[in-house]
Amino acid sequence: MSVFNCHVNRTPIEGEITAVAYRPGKFFNASLDKASADNERNSLRIRMTNGQDLAVVQIAGLVARRIVCFVKPGDRMQTAERFGLIRFGSRLDVYLPDGVDPLVSVGQTMIAGETVLADLTLSEEG
Fold first, then answer.
1. In sequence order, what are the residues at sequence separation of 6 or more whose Cβ sits closer than 8 angstroms to the Cβ of residue 33?
2. How much of the chain exceeds pLDDT 90, in percent?
3. Residues 65 and 87: beta-carbon distance below 8 Å
4. CA distances from 50 to 29, 121, 125 (A)
């Protein structure tokens, strides 16, 4: 996300927050690959209603130096519900369950609460 994007983070799926883990770090440009491993970040594990886990990671960027998370383990979330925000330019990684292919492409602009990232029902069938 650039400094011109909205930085409110929303849950990609309905489920229960089972873990929240904050890690301090550096503040490289969030578009760099090393930002996922080296930058300040906050990870959430979400247990979906089908029992699978999905992870989202709020990653601070070069300008963004404030990650805010509104949820804690045990909270039940609905799809597209606000769970946090990152102030200024930042990044949010979503880790899909094994066997799930994304329906979005690199460089695509997404709209929070509207863009479908993946079809999780396909992984349940196979």
1. none
2. 45
3. yes
4. 36, 10, 12
97, 24 contact by CB (below 8 A): no
pLDDT in tens, 50-60: 999 999 999 88
Domains in the chain (CATH in brackets) are 8-125 (2.40.50.100)
Spatial separation of the C-alpha atoms in residues 44 and 40, rounded to whole Å: 14
Residue 86: which of 62, 105, 107 has the closest Cα?
A: 62
Cα separation of 88 and 97, whole Å? 29
The residue from 36, 90, 105, 123 that is catalytic is 90
Asked about 36 being catalytic, the answer comes back as no
